[in-house]
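Hi there,

I know you've been waiting on this one. I reran it after we fixed the sequence typo, so this is the corrected version. Both the input and the resulting structure follow.
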Amino acid sequence: MTTTRTARIVIAAGAAAAGGLAAWDSLQRKHSVLRRYPLVGHLRYLLEDIRPELQQYFVERDWDGRPFDRDTRSLVYERAKGVDEEKPYGTELDVNELGHEYLVHSTTPLEPPDEPARVLVGGPDCARPYSMALLNVSAMSFGALSANAIRALNRGAALGGFAHDTGEGGLSRYHEEHGGDLVWEVGTGYFGCRTDDGGFDATRFADTAAKDQVKTVSLKLSQGAKPGIGGVLPAAKVTKEIAAARQVPAGEKCVSPSAHRVFSTPAELVEFVARMRELSGGKPAGFKLCVGSRIDVLAMCKAMLEVGTAPDFIIVDGSEGGTGAAPIEFEDHVGMALTDGLMTVHNALVGAGLRDRVRLGASGKVAGGADLVKRLAQGADYTNSARAMMMAVGCIQAQRCHTGTCPSGVATQTAWRARAVDVGDKGERVHRYQRSTVAEAMRLMAAMGVHDPVDVTPAHLQRRVSPTRVQSYAEIYEWLRPGELLAQPPASWADDWAAASPDRFGPVASGGHPWKEQA
């Protein structure tokens, strides 16, 4: 056999093997990247395998820019895949770093309960309360995510018995295919319950809200990634399917205004949420916001007292939350971080004597069980996660969401790209991720000596505030007593409480610039 012939046989065999591997990659269901990029996709997994050896040279960072002991992406991926999470050696965190936080364990820890805790959402005016899981799918719209990604998220929700927020892009047929519980979110565009001129259509709202799969209805005031502005979906992206879900004309620019038409005062907001509850047949109704002004939050509380009703829940979205596309300066410089916003709303409700009527959800970079428990200590009743749920579906954080060319098929409307997401496999991964994370949260709480999330207090969360001093959240921050704002507001809250009115939003601060007054 000649050398040339041998070479040809080797090349042909290699080509056949490569072709077979490519065919296998495109047909397998486990790996979105390989389904989308046969052969070359293996390079990613090769790099993933050798990453531990490279970490000593390239320090990985978490999503707050600080070093961490376990790559958050790996944590989500491993839980989604059902991989053992045990780790040798100790923490890689600098526990002496200023700002380091830790949970206080008990000398007499408990055994975790057989079933995870749940939270009953529904105040005294709610006829059909809903049992909410401690971790749920946060708001992500069809249009921002592909049809297969929506299907996978909802399948995971159905398997695990947790809620799936639709986002403000309407309730699509893909949300309904697997029967998972839905939080139907309505934004300023009123997609799915919209009049022809962009207003709110009560009849359309009632028809959709009546569906058994819809467990709660939520009014979006703002989101953490871009508070204070609306959005535009270019005409080219308004496909027939997206148009059907949003009840807008296909092929025409789709606009979400910055502000709502249905209310202009805090009292009108509270009245409209009560109307949503009535139109839905008594299901829990609430709203989502990224907090900007404490005065506005207090004005909402005064409105609840004046109107005589309250939302069944409020979802606080932190400014650190993400989105497929937003102006950089809005992402970085507008809105309160989740910790500040959550504690502001919690304290305002407590001080106004309303906290027992309103459940609080926390949304903004919740990924692990410790994140969940920390939010409980800061005042939340339950949490929502978007980014980690996307990772469980297959997101590799390529940061091309706004281009429509997502390599893993999660954030795209191109059918051949979206094919990378296998609904059955990724739905299982979403389920496993949520189940494992909640189980870890319950194990952490048991180690702290509690079973019920209500028993997690600010004293359970400690922070290093100086090189020689550690304080609990109970010591660092001010916590109002029930009804304290109604009786005698503390000095630190008195001015804002006096400035708040159920008849208007704002002002941010009383008075003006002294130099302007002098001029």
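Quick highlight: The chain is about 40% helix and 10% strand.

Best,
R. S.
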